[in-house]
Amino acid sequence: MKKIAITSNTSWYVYNFRKNTILSLIQKGYQVTAVAPKDEYSEKIEQLGATFIHVDIDQGGTNPVKDIKTFIDFFKIYSKIKPSVVLNFTPKNNIYSTLAAKLCKVKVINNIAGLGMVFINESPTAKLARFLYKVSQRKADKIFFQNEDDRKLFLDNNLADVSITDRLPGSGVDLTRFTLKPANDDGVVRFLLIARMLYDKGIGHYVESARALKAKYGDKVEFQLLGFVGVNNPSAVTKAEMQAWVDEGIVNYLGVSDCVEMDIAKVDCMVLPSYYREGVPKSLLEAGAMGKPIVTTDNVGCRETVDDGVNGYLCSLRSTESLSEKLELMITMSHEERLEMGRQSRLKIEREFDEKIVIQKYLDAIDEVLQK
Question: Which CATH superfamily is domain 189-352 in?
């Protein structure tokens, strides 16, 4: 029985984003091991039928000693379990797990789910990250990109040979879980933003727009936020900042959820004004699958989810004014017009982003690299 290792910087990610990939691999007869930091989702991964191994990853940190330890830990794990193929997700895994796996002569398939601020900033940390990408990704056997912009960036910077690159429709969406759920017409237009609470995700612009539109429309509009707050990231929104916005009455903070479909079902529109280099945001795919119009930035990864004016609107990056203008278009249209935009979202997701496409691409890629 061939062994497949799946790695990520959180067990939460493995379970929430790659659950059906794991189940499909097991069904195909592979023995699957998840390698990630232990959290409350690690046990759920094992319940799927996979083995779980803990590894320390300082996901937002820049301490080289910790990163070297992560690399060594990956090397020890692969030396012991001897997988045939390693599937890496999230940035540090793409770098350190790749280097460790290749030292153990293991095939590697990486997923570049957005490049964050690495190719935007010129800080020493960003330059080091670019160097590590160059060293590690040239050793990979296959690299999947979630948008064409990132793929082009890699090729232009000579980070990978074109022959090993391929495109995926984001991480895909489970169309059986995220089904069409039109919002009720109760006179309130509800907006929802689901993401890690980072300023790079446009949280500040969303709050400023909410403040202005609440002043104008009062209780006829509602702005919700859902996702991890106070995370280990320089761009993180603090718990105190979030509480201040809630106390001011601008936003409702919903915390975190394993059943985001229940929260998405209740809203009229999904929003993500990100200026981060996204892959293709999962929250937008899930909302689109549930028949919600989308307002997001004309930005790498985000723009893939919207046909402007058909299933939502694209706004300018880092512009509260542009975001507010698009949200107001959503507020002033009729309920039926919003529902029609939502129906177009569902059709687009069915055409372009079905998770089954992603899983089949992975199964084919595994066959391909094993034959090399």
Answer: Glycogen Phosphorylase B; (3.40.50.2000)
